[in-house]
Design a protein that fits this description.
alpha+beta; Amidase signature (AS) enzymes
């Protein structure tokens, strides 16, 4: 049991499938690892061990004669604490919902559990998943396993930290402005922001291509394993894709080398990118060139991305928070209040103009990928920062406006509606992780995952997790 937490998800599922290990053994191994590591990182904030063990018993008795190829056979997972798990506390990191118990599963959890996943607990997030640092007034801050003085980023910071520390083998994430990609970068794990509609969503929000659900894991093969379960049509989400989808796990095994890729350290829009981040991302991309891949420094035109994203985000915040804010203003953190008030000041024509601008940006990105297989760029403008700092106010002496400023590279990419993988690519002199965003062609998840597996093998970083939390 002491060593089970070190297995990859693929290795663990193979053992479960062959009955060489039982679901209850993995639940117990995860519980022991959480007990050993969580006091230092605060990644897993609500456990549901009795529920998990009951589920494990049911899976152990399951008739295996007609199971789908993506079945997980009792693998424990973590679920972000804004995603409902029936009978389990779901706070969204807010005092408003501090005592809320979910009455039903979210569609993502429904699909994962139907395919053999066992939810062992809920992972931490910023209040209402807003921000690039995981802290809230209900559970406090999540700390980075690579250095517990540092942030795990956000909003899926709890999921990323739990994976890096070996608490679970897979975890759910949600991504609006980079909430899968930046925690993956900060914790040296892997995540996927899929194309809108690839993973069904039913949360109350505007129907637009900004917010998506996606898998988080320690490596590309594990990520693809989870994505095979998550992806697919659902009648409650009109944006979901009918399929059938290819096997993403098979795509990861194939490791196809791209022929021509684009690279940019700033996408032409980031006023500053940390010098070590620049150097590490460039060094990783140079490995592609040495391996025979054509690399060109270029990027699509994203000049209007910042204005467009912040406008559309303001409109989403009206839908998510305006009614709650009227009654609970004293329970909101100031950044969300500012976001909602910004949204309420928008004129209808500004929102419509932003929607049109995103459509044009999507088309520019699609044309760009007629010439390139991939676009690579840093996941975030700076390496992990002090966990007690709400957000980086500046990078390389350049000050940002607002708490989203340091996330410009991730939220600009959101607007393209292209699938994006986050991959670890190296470490700073202080031993802090740095990651790359890898953008694929529209609806090109299969090719992206296959290429990401190739890149992962070339970079040689993924095998360094899970780790014991370290730092002061």
């Amino acid at each position: 049991m002491r060593d089970l937490w070190r297995l990859t998800a693929c290795e663990a599922v193979a053992l479960l499938k062959e009955r060489e290990v039982a679901p209850r053994e993995l639940v117990d191994a995860a519980a022991a690892r959480i007990e050993a590591t969580n006091p230092r990182i605060n990644a897993m904030v609500t456990l549901c061990l009795e529920r998990a063990r009951d589920h494990a018993v049911r899976l152990e008795k399951l008739d295996r004669s007609n199971l789908p190829p993506q079945f997980l056979y009792g693998l424990p997972i973590g679920v972000k604490d804004n995603t409902d798990v029936a009978g389990v506390r779901c706070t969204s990191g807010s005092r408003i919902h501090a005592d809320r118990i979910a009455t039903a599963n979210d569609v993502v959890v429904e699909r994962l559990e139907a395919n053999g996943a066992i939810v062992i607990g809920k992972t931490n997030l910023p209040e209402f998943a807003a921000g690039g640092n995981t802290f809230n007034d209900v559970f406090g801050a999540t700390r980075n396993p690579w250095d517990t003085r540092m942030s795990a980023s956000g909003s899926s910071g709890g999921s990323a930290a739990a994976l890096a520390a070996g608490q679970v083998w897979l975890a759910t994430g949600g991504d609006f402005g980079g909430s899968i990609r930046t925690p993956a970068s900060y914790c040296s794990i892997t995540g996927l922001r899929p194309s809108p509609g690839m993973v069904a969503r039913t949360q109350r929000q505007p129907f637009n291509p900004l917010s998506v659900e996606g898998p988080m894991a320690r490596n590309v093969a594990d990520m693809a394993l989870m994505f095979d379960v998550e992806a697919g049509w659902h009648p409650l989400d009109p944006l979901s894709q009918l399929g059938p989808h290819p096997s993403f796990a098979t795509a990861a095994v194939l490791r196809r080398k791209p022929r021509r890729v684009a690279f940019s350290v700033d996408l032409g829009i980031a006023g500053a990118v940390d010098r070590e981040v620049r150097a590490l991302c460039r060094a990783a991309v140079e490995k592609l060139a040495r391996d025979g891949v054509t690399v060109e420094e270029t990027h699509p035109d994203l000049a209007d991305a910042e204005r467009t994203f912040l406008t559309l985000r303001g409109a989403v915040f009206i839908a998510r928070h305006a009614a709650l804010l009227e009654k609970n203003r004293h329970l909101y953190k100031p950044e969300i209040i500012e976001n909602v008030e910004f949204g309420l000041r928008l004129k209808p024509e500004q929102i419509v103009e932003a929607e049109i601008a995103q459509g044009e940006l999507i088309r520019r990105a699609a044309r760009f990928f007629e010439d390139y297989d991939l676009l690579l760029c840093p996941a975030v403008t700076c390496p992990p920062f002090d966990v007690d700092t709400r957000y980086p106010a500046e990078v390389e002496g350049v000050r940002f406006e607002g708490y989203m400023g340091f996330l410009v590279l991730s939220y600009a990419v959101t607007l393209t509606a292209c699938p994006v993988a986050a991959l670890p690519c190296g470490f700073t002199a202080a031993g802090l992780p740095v990651g790359l965003q890898v953008l694929g062609r529209p609806r090109g998840e299969e090719a992206l995952i296959s290429a990401a597996a190739y890149l992962e093998s070339l970079f040689g970083v993924a095998g360094l997790t899970p780790i014991d939390p370290c730092g002061a």
